[in-house]
Amino acid sequence: MKKILLPTDFSDNSFEAIRYALLVYKDVKCTFYLLHTFNPPVYQTEYLLGSPGQIGLGDVLQETSLLKLEQLKKRLEDQYSNTNHTFIIHTAFNTLLNEITEMTQSENIDMIVMGTTGATGAKEILFGSNTVNVIKKSKCPVIAIPPKFEYEAPIEILFPTDFEISYPKKEMEPLLLIARQHKSRINVLHVRKTIELNIVQKENKKQLDRLLVNMAIFHSVADNEIIPAVNQFQEKNKINLLVMVQNKHSFIEKLFIEPVIKKIGFHITIPFLVIPQK
Fold this sequence. Notes:
Order of helices and strands: EHEHHEHEHEEHEHEHEHE
Largest sheet: 10 strands, mixed
Number of helices: 9
Mean pLDDT: 85
Helix content: 25-40%
CATH class of the largest domain: Alpha Beta
Structural class: alpha/beta
Domain UspA: 1-146
Number of strands: 10
InterPro entries: Rossmann-like_a/b/a_fold, Universal_stress_UspA, UspA
Low-confidence stretches: 119-125
Protein name: Nucleotide-binding universal stress protein, UspA family
Family: Belongs to the universal stress protein A family.
Pfam family, one: Usp
CATH topology of the largest domain: Rossmann fold
């Protein structure tokens, strides 16, 4: 039984993310946690000081949140009826990041699936701040779904790597599960800095090769920046899911520096799975 956390702000993008999770895991027994967090916009001042105008506001917001979650749950059960799936609703007076962190630990969550933008939907932002914070801080894998994404099965998966890190089976299981369920092909893209791999890289490549046996094709690209290489590969090949491993030396860190994004133009129009390194 997989436990999947589905944060929602009731926006279209968050619904697209939920729909993606239900379809990707349609043949997997799952418990889905529908999570909404709330707080009064002025709670840091008047609310905490007990302003008469704020008394009871938290209760009203909680009731509204629960009502919307119940409606969302019913809609999902009606539209995507699946005996493999059960839903639990959860609302909290908390920040989204804090509640996700707490729930990931308390409920032993296996995966988080969320939209990239949220209700504001600012087009110039690659990832909304909530998504950035969750990806950077989470010890649980995260799939981020771009806005207006029409569901497509993850048949072709792109996995860029520099072979600088090891690939334990337990950490890679989220990718392996999806690939097995959808009979996916995993395109391992190595953007090489030098012609020859060093000893560590060779060992890591062997480990990955054994792990992805009969699932992967290995590609090697001449010296290039990783993000342009990913963009170019996506332009030439139909890819349904982008997967990266997050670590403190990872090029993923670059994705969250806004000037870098604008300079290199990283295009994410497909779901993006980030696997944390333990």
